[in-house]
Amino acid sequence: MNAALRLGAFLMRIRPAPLAALLKRLLRVERIEIVTPDGRFWVDPASYLGQELMRHQVYEPTMLGALKEYLRPGGVFVDLGANEGYFSVVGARLVGSQGRVLTIEPQRRLEPVLRRNFVLNRCDQVTLVTVAISDRPGSGRLNLTPSPNNGASGFLAPTRYPLFRQPVALATLTQVLGEAGIARCDMMKIDIEGWEYEAVLGSREVFTARRVRTLALELHPHLLALRGFDSGAITQFLAACGYHEVNSRGQTLFILD
């Protein structure tokens, strides 16, 4: 694993990222399985997630700590913007076989990774939905960032160089929760690269009806501002619904009063 770690670190330093992705293919760098205290994962050693897990055996420790604090056996967790499923796996382990996890990730290239991570961890209680959440049903095109940082993919193009665009089905959060049969959840994580305005305010009834007890919301004020939106409108709406903002070990959460 040390050789894969070093090669991955070398490739991560190469710019622009598409060149790194090309070299990775030429060098036939493949995913490897690693074991961490929070599960087994099939990771790309030349990626931010892979490097963090291989070096430190943990990814985004503040979010991880929030899940461990607020999820209990038998609970329900919704992972919106799941990427490769790290937090879905952690959530599944925390809620146990009697709980439920709804994983929402629109990148088709990540579906095999997600499914393998779920199999590796025996996550039978996970439901995977491959749509993008917006404020209305329909279709769109997702900008796919190079594999070293696939978590930055979204409807906004974050790079100066052109990106491959994947057609994707759109659905509202209300619609997806209803189709999955989830009336309420103990915790929801939202990390969707500047589309949180549509996710939250496009499904107001989810929050006015207090269907989400704890919300871990990754706000992207700069990306929202580029689109003419104010992230304050989201936090003000949540406050009006009865949520109070807290800092839990460095992670911002919105918790029902």
Structural overview:
37% of the residues lie in helices and 25% in strands. It is of the alpha/beta class and 257 residues long. The strands form 3 sheets. It has a 7-stranded mixed beta sheet, sandwiched between helices. It has a 3-stranded mixed beta sheet with strand order 6-8-7. It has a two-stranded antiparallel sheet with strand order 1-2. The longest helix has 11 residues, at 2-12. The chain is globular, with a radius of gyration of 18 Å. The protein starts with a helix and ends with a strand. The model has no long low-confidence stretch (mean pLDDT 96).
Explain briefly what this protein structure is.
The chain is built from eleven helices and twelve strands. It is of the alpha/beta class.
Radius of gyration: 18 Å
- The H-and-E topology, N to C, reads as HHEEHHEHEHEEEEHEHHEHHEE
From the N-terminal CA to the C-terminal CA, the straight-line distance is: 46 Å
Question: How many strands?
Answer: 12
Strand order, sheet with most strands = 5-4-3-9-10-12-11
Shape: globular
**CATH-derived architecture:** 3-Layer(aba) Sandwich
Number of helices: 11
- Spans of at least 5 consecutive residues whose pLDDT stays below 50 are none
Annotated CATH topology: Rossmann fold
Q: How many domain regions?
A: 1
In CATH, what is the homologous superfamily?
Vaccinia Virus protein VP39
Largest sheet: 7 strands, mixed
Helix content: 25-40%
Q: Mean of the pLDDT scores? A: 96
| Fraction in beta strands | 25-35%
Q: Which structural class matches the secondary elements?
A: alpha/beta
